[in-house]
Write a structure and sequence with these properties.
The chain has two domains: about 90 residues, Winged helix-like DNA-binding domain superfamily/Winged helix DNA-binding domain (Arc Repressor Mutant, subunit A), CATH 1.10.10.10; about 120 residues, D-Maltodextrin-Binding Protein, domain 2 (3-Layer(aba) Sandwich), CATH 3.40.190. It contains ten helices and four strands. It is about 55% helix and about 5% strand. The protein is mainly α. Helix 1 crosses helix 3 and helix 6 packs across helix 10. The chain starts with a helix and ends with a helix.
């Protein structure tokens, strides 16, 4: 099997986007990061990380990153249940759950789900910025759903906005419906790996609870 340290290095480079930032997170030198990446690529016989700005994973690299996240969560759960296994290297470390979420959900209800999830100690949540970036391009490069609402309030355009962001403005008359009583309901789906990991189950429960309370269903 591949050493946990090598898996963690690939995941760190992909998550941080560069060897230098991964080195700071792992508390090693960029040269050591490079050596670890070369070693694991030699072992698996294929390129795992495309060097660039930022560094990105190949298909094999992405698969190893998912495996690394699973291993990290399993180890974190083991250390929580058996603290006598804790070492100076593992103290204070946290696994990471990578969540891809659309900007509208992130700007309205999803943060509430994360708040509930983060009330107890556990994995870190990684929200890729590229998700918001793609939405921003579709919205004439306005940086966020809230900025899109502000644009409508300023009278520079019109568009579809999440009800959670514009409900009060509709009630006060600052915004009006272009076509009344014609909401556009967009189905949302929560997909998660089917792994026996308590932290994933807890995150899913937080998401489902908040979604059932705040969204139309």
């Amino acid at each position: 099997m591949i050493e946990t340290s090598l898996l963690a290095t690939v995941a760190a480079v992909v998550r941080e986007g560069s060897f230098e930032r991964a080195a700071r997170v792992l508390h090693i030198t960029p040269s050591a990061v490079s050596q670890r990446i070369r070693l694991i690529e030699e072992r698996v016989g294929t390129v795992l990380v495309v060097r660039g700005q930022p560094c990105t994973p190949t298909e094999a690299g992405a698969r190893l990153c998912r495996h690394a996240q699973t291993v990290a969560m399993l180890e974190e759960g083991l250390l929580r249940d058996m603290p006598e296994l804790q070492t100076t290297q593992t103290a204070g470390t946290h696994a990471t759950i990578r969540v891809a979420i659309n900007a509208d959900s992130l700007g309205t209800w999803f943060i509430t789900a994360l708040r509930d999830f983060c009330r107890s100690d556990g994995p870190l949540i990684d929200l890729p910025q590229s998700q918001a970036g793609r939405v921003a391009q579709l919205r004439h490069r306005l940086p966020s759903p809230q900025a899109f609402v502000e644009g409508a309030l300023a009278g520079i355009g019109w568009g579809m906005n999440p009800l959670h962001l514009v409900g009060e403005h509709l009630w006060t008359g600052r915004l009006v419906e272009l076509v009344s009583e014609r909401p556009l309901d967009i189905p949302l789906y929560w997909q998660v790996a089917k792994l026996p990991l308590p932290e994933l189950e807890r995150l899913s429960q937080s998401v489902h609870t908040v979604a059932n309370a705040l969204l139309v269903h």
